[in-house]
Each structure stands twice: as structure tokens, then as C-alpha cells.
User: Which sequence fits this backbone?
């Protein structure tokens, strides 16, 4: 069984609203062992949507559409599905009564267009929506089963989990092929070097399939297999072990874990406290560490010492040192790490100083230059980098590099 | 002229990585007056991608593909485009030389697989990539023009702006119907209240079209019109003026500006300096303010006073006060704002303290309780809120609310 995902909405194809439904539905289908063949985004256009539905039903056994079920005339999923299935729209008396009752309770007049939400393709079964006014439905289109879900993410999520997935599981039956994915997260090597180290495992036709993707400095290695459950699990485990053996310490986590998560959890587990002194990252390092619930047991605090005066006043960095070597230097990064550790009374201190750009660079100290230091109970480790990319990317990779340095200093 | 957008990557159809390229490309095309007919997401599968390319080229005059140009064997856009166009792949000598030169400079061995990036469909023109190793290309497929761009968002963005859009403009020629969109960004009212205030402007059939979308506390009002350029511009300007008149001070910006951008720019323009003292937001407020280049002229620094000891030691908050009213309280927020202003010698100080959850709440002080304060040269404004949502959302809306309080305190 294969699935296709469709999202509809003018705001999506204009790029004004990010389509998060596709990724969320894809994850839910993967968890059920249903591979997704592809996904389509179309505007609020009945003919284009009907055409996309026909193609999706030709390509897949299960089609999940989100959006276009609202009460306004640009909500055309009901009509497009009816057209693709070659059936008429019928008004459902129970849905109409429920809509009228909902407005009666509020003592407000119901706009006539709201009744559109009681229409559905002939033969469709209604999927109740306990999270909003627009119910979904499920209907056969050709040889495929099509689920239509509301577009607002929290409504889609509710109707998917409560109504669509149980019916999908019934369709799948008890014995089925599973699709399993395992992702290993790495940091510290370029994608090409990672790919080279595991090139034979990535060869076409090999099972499990292995692929890499690079996202803002993190390289993810994904292992993917389909088949009978225990065989798939064993094959993925064997491939994972081989990849871990070859890649060594650059593997920091799995299945979407971030460096922030991994470092924070490890600090919490070992009862280690940490404090940070940041310059170019402006608070992002503290934010990454405190993204994890319960981090108050380990994170003592931080100083964002943006101005040199702040480095002197709040961290006690020597003003003469700043004058001599400049704020973006190994010595200042080391002094910041130590000051953070000592001032906050923590086990670890981290210092980050750099030039995020676009301005402020020079031949000697270019944009992207970052000095990091970690003071672990008096032992200081330093790293110098020149990072590529724009201001946001430099800041983000500087944070990841600092977290990676903490990870390695505490390993 | 109509466009179709294609994104490729197993990560995308499994929902493991969010596809942000489609929305970004859609916005860029809209700005050029090119309507997007739809978008497709497919995995790293040469045959499926070739099929999607053929369909896209049948449906649209311009097709923009992102992803699948990297150096590993699962990057199959080059081969899929060649297959869809019915041409062979050829290795480009200039690209090969450039790749080899790039590695020679670094004095590292080039993985052999990197040479895949020098392949391209016969007849394609290379689109240089100054942001990474994978160049894009443009080629005719049937009657359509296909642009292939690298997948990493910052590389896609660079090649799109520098190489693809100039060629697209040449294709479009001088006279054309434009599609214009204007978005007004608001903060401080619920979506239903915003919609109520401009309900008549949002009526179906009216031109320009007006719609609202809510994203993590920010409500965006989008005005959209198509037609002859000067008429469209005038109609959008008139509708914008009316919406601004009705919504008043909750409108903080336009076209994707964030509260951080707006506040930072306003501080820079007026030469006002700022410092922050954060607790539950862990550094996110400082990060939001320093997202803007050149902010070192205004942002003095911050303290992330997560532990109570840090509030006492680094901010000089009275330990007895903390014991009496608790860290999450109006008095402590006010004291943090003043301490930030005074310690960093800034014009403005901001204090944020709250309970981001999921733990740490009580009947009296529930999860989501946030106290904010802004000290503007000695005049302190305070705000108490109980925010909905999970830890990440509480932190994000707390930051936005703090920025909004700064905006209003300095208006």
C-alpha cells in the first residue's frame, strides 16, 4: 500500500503560509508503515484540485487531502472530490442539523455559506471534527480510498488521529509489510566526506537504503527498509551498527535529536551544571540549552556580552586584553568560558565570540570567524572556525559547534 | 505564464525535514507576477522524479526544482531531468575543473562522488552556486523551461535570486499582468477580533482579496490583487490604509517583518540602547534582538538569570524579595528590567520571568504565567500574561510580548 498527500489553499501556493500538514501526515503514515509516494500542493481551484486528486488516486492506494473544507466559496475540496469520483454532492441532513444547532447555541445568525460544510460527495462517510466546524469525510475514488481532512493544523491533527488512522489501520489488516526508518545525526564532517565513508552502503539497489541530507551544518544519515517487521528491524540495526563504527564520534544522536537536546540530557543525567558567555550568538546558545524541560537543574545562566563594556563589567574580562587581541580572539573566548564557569559557580563554562556579519569583517578577521572555548572544571578547550553562510547561518552553526565542543569535552 | 514547483528528497516525503523551499520559491514567483499552479514533493527516486517533472512541464511553462543536486548517489535530479527531457547526461569540463580547484585550495582530497556534481543534462546551461558546491542548471523540457536549484535553503535562495530570477525576467518580457500581495503584521489581538474589525473587506468577491492567518501569536492580514500594475498598486494601497486605520497600533510591520526586526530597527534609528534580563526565555529575547545586522550599536547585552543565585549574583536582585514573592512575579520582573538597564548602562532594560512548563506550575502560578517589565530611563511598565501552548510556544510568545512591550514603551 502506498499513499499520496494533497494540500490545498491559495495561501500555500503563494508561499504565505508554510504547509506543515504534509510533513505531519507523512510522519503519521510512516509510523503506520505506509510509504508516501509523493505530495502535491494546489490552490483553491476546483478543476486543478480535481485533476490532482485523479492523479493521486492513480498513483496511490490511499490519498489524504487537507484543507478546502471551510465554509467559504473558495473551499472546494468537497466539489473537487465529487468531480474526481464522478459522483454528485449531496447535503447531509444530520450535518446540517448539527451546524444549525451550533449557531443556535451561540445565538448568532449562521451565514448561509456555512451550510456548504454539510455537503459531501455521494457515498462518503463523515469523519467527525471535534476541533472545529468543518467535518472531514472518507470516500472511494476509483480503486483508492480518499480521506479529506480540515486544513487548520490542530483540526487536521485531531481528525487524522481520531478518525482517519483507525480506518486506515482497518484497511491495512493485521499482517502487513512495515516501513521503518532510522536517522543518525552527525556533526563535524562535510556531507561529501560522510557519504564517502559509507558510499558502499548508499549504493543503489542495496537494502536497507541509506541516504544523507545536510541541514545547516548537521548531516543526517537515514536508513530505510521495507518488509517483514523482524527482518527489517534486524537489517536496520546491522546497518546502523556498521555506520556508527565507520563514522565514530561525529554521530551525536538519532531520529531528529538535536545537539541541544543531546547535550542538555547528558548534562542533566550526569548532574553537571553549565553557564555560558555569548557574544555573536546573542542568546541562542542559552536558548538551545533551555529548550529542554527541567533544564533549570543544570543551566545556571548566561551573559550575552555584546558590547566590550559588558564583557568587562559583567564577565570581568581584562580591558587591556580586549584592546590588545580584540574581542574576537582565542584569548577572549577562553576568558569568557572561564568567567562564565566561575561567575555562575558552574562545572562547565562556554565562551563564544565571533563575527556574524554581514559587516565587521576584515582581512585578518573575516566574517564567519568564530572562537569557541569550553572550560570544564579548569581545563579549557578552544576551537577556531571560519563559518560559511549568512548572519543567521553563522550564528546557528556557531551554536551547534559550541554544543558539540561541550559534548566532546564531557564525553 | 504559469509555474510549477518541485521539491525532492526522501526526508521531505517522510516528514523528517520541513520543506521550506516551496513556500520561498512561491513567494519569489508571486513577486515576479508569475502564478504558481501547484507544487509536488517526491522522494529521491529517479523514476518518480522524472515522472513528476514530465507532469509539471505539461502543466506549466516554468518549472523550478529544488534538491537532489548534491554529491551522493541518492541525488538524482540531474539524471531525472535528463530522462524527462529525453537527453543524456554529460560531464562539464569547466565544472569539473572548478570542483577540483575548490578542493585544491583547501588542500583536502576530493571525494570522487563530488564529480557527479559536474554532470548535467545535455543542452543545459549551468547556474553558478556561490553558496555551496552544487551548481544548478536551466534546460528546456518539452515546451517548458526548467530551473534546477540546490536543496539547502540558503544555497537555493542564492542561486534563485542571482541566477534563476534574472533569466525568468528575460523570459517574461516587459509587459505583463502583475500579481501583488501585501501583508500587514499584527500582534496583541486574537484572529477573530481582527477578522471582525475588517469583516466587510474580507467579503468574497471583493477586490483586492483580504484574508487573515494566525501564526504563533502573530496575526497576518494579507491583501492580494491581480491586474495592471498601477491599478493593482493603487487598490492595494487604499485597502491597506483602511485596514491600518481600523486596526491601529496592533499593526507593527509589513511583509514578513518580525517584531524583533521592527524593534531593533527602531532602536537603531533612534540611537536607543537596550539590555535584557531573561529567565524562562533562556536567551531567545537577546537572540531575537541581535538577529538584525549592526545591532551591536544598540544592544548592550543580556543576562540569562535562570537560577535564583544568578538573579542575585549577576543582577543584584534582592534574595529576600525572591523568597517572599517568588521568581515569577511582578516585583521580580520589574527589578530585572531595572537591573538590566543599570548594569549594562542602557537606555532601556527588559525583564522576563515565567513558567514555560511543562513542569513547575501551581494553582496560583500556572504553566504559561509570564511577567514582563520594561524600564525606559526609569519609567517601568509591567505586563502579566498567562500564555497557552507548549513550552516552545510559551517561550516564543513571551519573547514577542516583550518585544511588543518595548515597541509600545518607545512609541
Assistant:
Amino acid at each position: 500500500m502506498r499513499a499520496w498527500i494533497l494540500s490545498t489553499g491559495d495561501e500555500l501556493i503563494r508561499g504565505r503560509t508554510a504547509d506543515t500538514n504534509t510533513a505531519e501526515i507523512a510522519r503519521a503514515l510512516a509510523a503506520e508503515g505506509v510509504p508516501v509516494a509523493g505530495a502535491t500542493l494546489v490552490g483553491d481551484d476546483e478543476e486543478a484540485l480535481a485533476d490532482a486528486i485523479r492523479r493521486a488516486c492513480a498513483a496511490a492506494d490511499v490519498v489524504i487531502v487537507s484543507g478546502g473544507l471551510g465554509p467559504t466559496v473558495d473551499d472546494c475540496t468537497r466539489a473537487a472530490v465529487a468531480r474526481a469520483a464522478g459522483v454528485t454532492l449531496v447535503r447531509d441532513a444530520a450535518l446540517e442539523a448539527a451546524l444549525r444547532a451550533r449557531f443556535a447555541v451561540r445565538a448568532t445568525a449562521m451565514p448561509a455559506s456555512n451550510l456548504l460544510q454539510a455537503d459531501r460527495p455521494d457515498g462518503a462517510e463523515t469523519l467527525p471534527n471535534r476541533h472545529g466546524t468543518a467535518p472531514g469525510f472518507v470516500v472511494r475514488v476509483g480503486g483508492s480510498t480518499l480521506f479529506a481532512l480540515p486544513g487548520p493544523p490542530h483540526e487536521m491533527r485531531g481528525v487524522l488521529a481520531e478518525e482517519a488512522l483507525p480506518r486506515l489501520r482497518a484497511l491495512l489488516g493485521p499482517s502487513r509489510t512495515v516501513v521503518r526508518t532510522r536517522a543518525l545525526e552527525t556533526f563535524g564532517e562535510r556531507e561529501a566526506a560522510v557519504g564517502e565513508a559509507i558510499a558502499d552502503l548508499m549504493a543503489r539497489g542495496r537494502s536497507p537504503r541509506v541516504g544523507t541530507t545536510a541541514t545547516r551544518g548537521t548531516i543526517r544519515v537515514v536508513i530505510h527498509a521495507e518488509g517483514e517487521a523482524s527482518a527489517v528491524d534486524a537489517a536496520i540495526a546491522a546497518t546502523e551498527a556498521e555506520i556508527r563504527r565507520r563514522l565514530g564520534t561525529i554521530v551525536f544522536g538519532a531520529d531528529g535529536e538535536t545537539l541541544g537536546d543531546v547535550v542538555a540530557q547528558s548534562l542533566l543525567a550526569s548532574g553537571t551544571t553549565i553557564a555560558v558567555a555569548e557574544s555573536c550568538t546573542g542568546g541562542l546558545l542559552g536558548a538551545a540549552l533551555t529548550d529542554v524541560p527541567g533544564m533549570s537543574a543544570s543551566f545556571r545562566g548566561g551573559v550575552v556580552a555584546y558590547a566590550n563594556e559588558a564583557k568587562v563589567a559583567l564577565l570581568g574580562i581584562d580591558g587591556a586584553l580586549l584592546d590588545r587581541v580584540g574581542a574576537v580572539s582565542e584569548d577572549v573566548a577562553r576568558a569568557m568560558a572561564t568567567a562564565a564557569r566561575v561567575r555562575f559557580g558552574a562545572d562547565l563554562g562556554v565562551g563564544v565570540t565571533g563575527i556574524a556579519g554581514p559587516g565587521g569583517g576584515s582581512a585578518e578577521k573575516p566574517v564567519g570567524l568564530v572562537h569557541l572555548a569550553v572550560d570544564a572544571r579548569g581545563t579549557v578547550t578552544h576551537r577556531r572556525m571560519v563559518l560559511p553562510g549568512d548572519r543567521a547561518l553563522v550564528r546557528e552553526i556557531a551554536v551547534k559547534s559550541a554544543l558539540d565542543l561541550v559534548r566532546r569535552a564531557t564525553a
